[in-house]
């Protein structure tokens, strides 16, 4: 029998890592026999208004709370990990560095069981996470050149800005400009300083002007602003929206200056997204510790007829949490005593004072004066 191939011509380069002999033949057979004993069930699915049995058996094992819904009708609630599946997961995590929360099993009993071609794009799985990490710093990440909408979700302090700086450098090497959009002026200025790009207030006084692009607050995406912003000036360029969740919230809800120009800013943002995603080399980066599916779907809705698949990078690293203590009352003696003791053990300590007056007992100035004696 001739082996069929998925590709008509030469095999393309795919972002797939193959680990040969991951399991020995004996281990694979033992795992297969174990899988046959799992708690399989045949669920009901609703298609075109009719309810019918899913033409296969299904099971799901995983962490508590990782429920899975597909086709808006089949709900799978994970059972507790079996010892064999948990051991398999640990081996995969040790090999790849990625942590997995669930495993879904599909059993096709005979040739009568089958599922048509489909993509695993259920909302409960998130938006196609292409790179999953769990590390202190992002380091070097390679994004395929053809990707146009890149999502970066990583905790604060894990190197999002440093990685974006390398992407900005690549864009400049390719003679493409970079537009940095934020919701705060100070943040925009800091990013521009790191990326080597002028902030909008520096454009007229700096000799490079807008040659490399510039940074701007989302409030200024209109013709009457200092930026004199015109979305049609941008196409084969790079757009970075940092703290994108806060940018979008600010744009849609804030009662500050943006409120006066909200309609024109929204229209210009939509045109900007379509110009960039519709061009051959344009890219948009959404970056935040809290970027969500909602943020990504909002940008996709702005794209209109231009259909793109987001390339999602998620760093699941969690910082080691410290202890938080609350001191109330009118006398800070307990706070001072605890602070004295904590400082004697070394380490770093953050003191947050909520007094309205700086010179009050619980004020910053009073506590600072006391701490200078240490």
Q: Uncertain runs with pLDDT below 50, 5 residues or more?
A: 1-10
The largest sheet has its strands arranged as 7-14-8-13-12-9-11-10
**What level of helicity do the residues show?**
25-40%
CATH architecture verdict of the largest domain: 3-Layer(aba) Sandwich
Biggest sheet details = 8 strands, parallel
SSE string, helices as H and strands as E: HEEEEEHEEEHEHEEEHHEHEHH
Using DSSP, what is the number of strands?
Answer: 14
**Which structural class should the secondary elements be placed in?**
alpha/beta
Number of domains: 3
Distance between the termini: 82 Å
Number of helices: 9
The overall pLDDT, averaged over residues, is 84
Shape: globular
What is the CATH superfamily label of the largest domain?
P-loop containing nucleotide triphosphate hydrolases
Please give the radius of gyration in angstroms. Answer: 27 Å
Named CATH topology of the largest domain: Rossmann fold
Strand content: 15-25%
Can you tell me the CATH class of the largest domain?
A: Alpha Beta
